[in-house]
Amino acid sequence: MSTRTHLLTGAGSGIGEVLARLLRERGDEVWLLARSDERAGELAEACPGARTLVADLADPIAVEALADRLPRRLDSLVHAGGVVELGTVGELSAAAWVETVTVNLVAPAVLTRLALPALRSARGTVVLVNSGAGLVAKPQWSAYAASKHGLKALADSLRAEESEHGVRVSTIYPGRTATAMQEKVHAQEGRDYDPSQWIDPATVAAAILQALDLPDDAVLTDLSLTPRG
């Protein structure tokens, strides 16, 4: 398989970090989006050979500024970054809503738009790492679930719009996965955190690789993963 080029968000930990390492290990070119120059240095050290771009997903204007800095050809764009803040509708602040929807939905939409020419050039794949919350909204999860329901809508529309250009769009819906975000969720829920109870990030990364490596005659549209236990 020839060398391919990928752009990832959320590569600082969890699923994105594992995926970036796997792609580099097989010799692919990897571009990682970092929220700050300091974070870019950390990502470059953790994933030798990867290139970095700096823009905070919480700032869509900063994401817009990447327009002239993206690779001209992209075999994939993987949206693995995200934030979560639990709370009831009666408790969540406007700031929590704005940050959650901006990072989890608006920024991916903006970045995808900027990357479309490069993706069309390569007949590439967009992978959106969603969540079980993107299918079912439970108490305390309103802001996060709303952002992820929106991400599903973004994926569905994008898939229909870009099929004529050869761009594939895949959504992965992991259940609870043993990441730093999951540890934060447990803290917010007031529960002890045992990563062995949840999906290994490497398992989700393997599913993303399957979507990226699928032969050109098919699209992996939607894939849900749930903890076996």
Explained architecture:
With 229 residues, this protein is α/β, with parallel strands linked by helices. It is 44% helix and 15% strand. The protein contains seven helices and seven strands. It has a seven-stranded parallel beta sheet, with helices on both faces. β2 (29-34), α2 (37-46) and β3 form a beta-alpha-beta unit. α4 packs parallel to α5. The longest helix is centred in the middle third of the chain and has 29 residues, at 94-122. The chain is globular, with a radius of gyration of 17 Å. The model has no long low-confidence stretch (mean pLDDT 96).
List the helices and strands and how they pair.
Blueprint: E1 5-9, H1 14-25, E2 29-34, H2 37-46, E3 51-54, H3 60-64, E4 76-79, H4 94-122, E5 125-129, H5 142-162, E6 168-174, H6 180-189, H7 201-213, E7 222-225
Parallel strand pairs: 1-2, 1-4, 2-3, 4-5, 5-6, 6-7
Beta-strand residue fraction: 15-25%
Question: Strand tally, please?
Answer: 7
Helix content range = 40-55%
Which parts are unreliable, with pLDDT below 50 for 5 consecutive residues or more? none
Order of helices and strands: EHEHEHEHEHEHHE
The 3D shape can be described as globular
**Average pLDDT metric:** 96
- Oligomeric description of these chains: single chain
Largest sheet, order of strands side by side? 3-2-1-4-5-6-7
Termini, distance in Å?
36 Å
The helix/strand class is: alpha/beta
The major pleated sheet works out as: 7 strands, parallel
Question: Helical stretch count?
Answer: 7
Radius of gyration: 17 Å
